[in-house]
Specification:
Elements: H1 42-52, E1 59-62, H2 69-76, E2 80-84, H3 88-97, H4 103-118, H5 135-138, H6 141-155, H7 160-177, H8 192-196, H9 202-224, E3 233-236, E4 252-257, H10 270-280, H11 308-320, H12 322-343, E5 346-356, E6 360-361, E7 364-365, H13 368-377, E8 381-390, E9 399-400, E10 410-411, E11 415-423
Parallel strand pairs: 1-2, 1-4, 2-3, 4-5
Antiparallel strand pairs: 5-11, 6-7, 8-11, 9-10
């Protein structure tokens, strides 16, 4: 597979562009490595770069990189990429996706792993994992025993990059062999009836993840071979709400990202999703990260944002629920601070694109797309265009009951907005 043969978005004029990508493969290359909540699909990043930065090189930043979709797409285009995220598991996966692994090393250790598990290794079962208070609540004893075997095998891998490859597969194996409902992003244990019939084959799961990831790696390596210069990839723990990354001030050519659509308590619980895997991988407990994400620190009053549509929407929420309006205001206050700090990193004529959704609170749609436009304009950016996208095959139901009143349902987000601006 080469740059010429990887799946390219259909070409349209800017006003005709199709951003839906119904039925397309969203797991090409190293994008296959690991599931993660609310991932931006690769086609959005690929199409944006083809449209606005086709012949451009330089530095690409994703300030909320998650598991690195944008970073991979920038990397294969020849951009040096920088990703920022507070979640240690997300950073690990992003690093794995943009690492040029030695395939012979990977193959050697996969063969060693197969021999190891077939030898029925005698190992002491792990009885405690920091960050999981009730290990036998979330994992069956046999599962814990087999996960312990895999963990011990990985611990003996001396090559740091190879270990990273195995840890990425192990993380997903942990989650899928746990007692949590894998179709949910929050931690919910299977009911008794389901648990009675739940007998995951841990070794088979791990082997399947390794083989799937190996195939993605091979395709990734073939694309990288065609680049005249191998790009760099750096992943940092950094909170853009609090400050800007001075190392990259006025050095970024492209910012391409999908920020949170709201506070993690009421949108996507990244910490809960990551908790079990991160604990087994000896990472910092990600549930503590949720307290640092945008909107996690509640304000005492409703702020004014000099964005009429946003201010009006928050006022409508306040008429129904003052406390909830203050919470919403706290999220947008953090988003505004973050955008101000990200703006400082972008060089003159640099591009930004934020992919956002407009969530609904207390029956009121919050115009996040307009807020993003407004916040960047306040930081000396010129608005270029907003592309609209219908979200197909959503994991979230088409309707939910935010008020928890039986029969009172509302539509959930089924559209995204790709907001594009340029630094003056």
């Amino acid at each position: 597979m080469s740059l010429a043969t990887i799946t390219q978005p259909k070409l349209f004029t800017p006003d005709e562009i199709d951003w839906t990508f119904q039925g397309e493969n969203t797991r090409e290359l190293t994008h296959c490595y690991h599931d993660y909540p609310a991932r931006m699909i690769l086609q959005i990043a690929r199409q944006f770069l083809n449209l606005f930065a086709k012949n451009q090189k330089g530095l690409l930043l994703d300030p909320y990189c998650g598991t690195g979709t944008t970073l991979v797409e920038g990397f294969i285009k020849g951009f040096d990429v920088v990703g920022l995220d507070l979640n240690p598991l997300a950073r690990l996966i992003s690093k794995a996706k943009t690492t040029i692994f030695d395939l012979s090393e990977i193959d050697f250790h996969i063969k060693q792993f197969q021999k190891y598990i077939l030898s029925n290794p005698k190992t002491s079962q792990i009885t405690e994992i920091a960050g999981i208070s009730r290990l036998n609540f979330w994992f069956k004893d046999e599962v814990t025993e087999n996960l312990s075997v895999i963990k011990n095998f990985i611990a003996e891998i001396s090559n740091i990059e190879t270990k990273l490859f195995f840890l990425t597969a192990f993380s997903e194996t942990v989650r899928e062999s746990s007692n949590t409902r894998t179709h949910e992003f929050k931690l919910y244990r299977y009911n008794k009836e389901t648990l009675a019939n739940f007998q995951p084959n841990v070794f088979s799961l791990m082997s399947a993840k390794l083989e799937r990831n190996r195939k993605g790696l091979i395709k990734f390596l073939k694309v990288i071979e065609e680049l005249s210069v191998i790009p760099t990839s750096e992943i940092f723990e950094f909170n853009t709400v609090e400050s800007h990354l001075e190392k990259y001030e006025k050095k970024v050519d492209v910012v391409l990202t999908s920020p949170p659509y709201g506070d993690s308590t009421t949108t996507v619980a990244y910490g809960q999703y990551s908790r079990l895997s991160a604990a087994w991988l000896d990472l910092f407990q990600p549930e503590k990260i949720d307290g640092k994400l945008m909107g996690s620190k509640k304000g005492k009053q409703i702020e004014k944002f000099d964005c009429p549509e946003l201010d009006t929407a928050i006022s409508k929420i306040a008429e129904i629920d003052q406390k909830r309006a203050i919470e919403v205001s706290a999220f947008y206050e953090d988003l505004q601070k973050s955008i101000t700090n990200v703006s400082k990193l972008v060089k003159r004529n640099g591009l930004t694109s934020y992919v956002v959704g407009n969530r609904k609170v207390k029956g009121t749609v919050l115009p996040t797309n307009l807020a993003v436009k407004n916040f960047f304009e306040q930081s000396n950016f010129k608005y270029i265009k907003t592309f609209h996208r219908t979200i197909p095959n959503k994991r979230m139901p088409l309707r939910n009951s935010p008020s928890n009143i039986i029969g009172a349902t509302e539509n959930t987000m089924n559209r995204e907005f790709i907001v594009v601006l340029k630094k003056l």
